[in-house]
Amino acid sequence: MPSYTFQNNDTNEIWDDMMSWDERCSFLNDNPHIKQIIKKAPQLVGSRFVGGIKNDDGWSENLSRIAEAHPSSELARTHGSKDSKTVKTQNAVDKWRKGRGKT
Fold this sequence. Notes:
Elements: E1 3-8, E2 14-18, H1 21-30, E3 34-37, H2 57-69, H3 74-79, H4 84-100
Antiparallel strand pairs: 1-2, 1-3
């Protein structure tokens, strides 16, 4: 059950309460002098390590599968297979592109 932080507008008292979403809605409707406040913003998961959040292994696995399906993409460089054959092949392709003036 989630915890919510409330503030009494009359006394400026702040407290935390655990209740369901429906209980929270009815509590705020029954008590118009009380409002919910957010002490800490929720953290969102991104595609990299951001703001103290580390991606779980499922997301990393998904990125690896996408990288394998698109071996010439930037995602393949960062999340793809790192075995010696793949690295040597990518270096040869990069060398060829550089010689041709392509990026």
